[in-house]
Amino acid sequence: MSELVGLVPYIWHITTPAEWAVAQAQGQYTADSLLTEGFIHCSTPAQVVEVANGLFRGRNDLILLHINSHQVQSPIVYEDCYQTGQQFPHIYGPLNLDAVTAVYPFPPDAGGRFRLPLA
User: Which of 30, 39, 45, 107 is the most exposed, having the fewest neighbouring CB atoms within 10 Å of its CB?
Assistant: First the structure.
């Protein structure tokens, strides 16, 4: 586990509009994984499409949170919990909403695959 090692300026989190609406009402974002695993799963820009295509292929109910990692108040730890050889950013605590710089619709293409909305 390495806190802030390899910290990139922006990270991504995949969620749903309903979960985001709850976060806005509560004033902070807490994913189910924060309760079950102790952290919020995130990805670097280089990882997010692979994660989306591996875990969410074909889902039409997703959005992407674009997060300024330097504004996140909870610790961000980069770790390989999945034996992939990749260090994924995990937020160990609630996500403060002011760290979210943009929210993008994240629909798949006609083949069910995702790509970054800014690419």
Answer: 107
Q: Is the dihedral of CA 81, 56, 104, 115 positive or negative?
A: positive
Q: In what order do the strands lie in the sheet with 10-15?
A: 10-15, 63-68, 100-105
Name the one residue in this structure whose structure tokens are 């108040």: 73
Q: What is the pLDDT of residue 118?
A: 62
Selection from 21, 13, 6, 93 nearest residue 55 by Cα: 13
Query: Rounded distance, CA 100 to CA 103, Å?
Result: 7
Looking at residue 93, what DSSP letter applies?
A: S
Integer Cα distance of 66 and 47 in angstroms: 13
Q: In order of start, what are the domains of the chain with their CATH numbers?
A: 2-105 (3.20.170.20)
Three-state DSSP class for 2?
A: strand
Q: In the structure encoding, which two tokens stand for residue 117, read together? A: 């909305």
Main-chain phi, psi angles of 81, to 5 degrees:
-85, -5
Could you read off the pLDDT of 16-52 as tens digits, one per residue?
Answer: 999 999 999 999 999 999 999 999 999 999 999 999 9
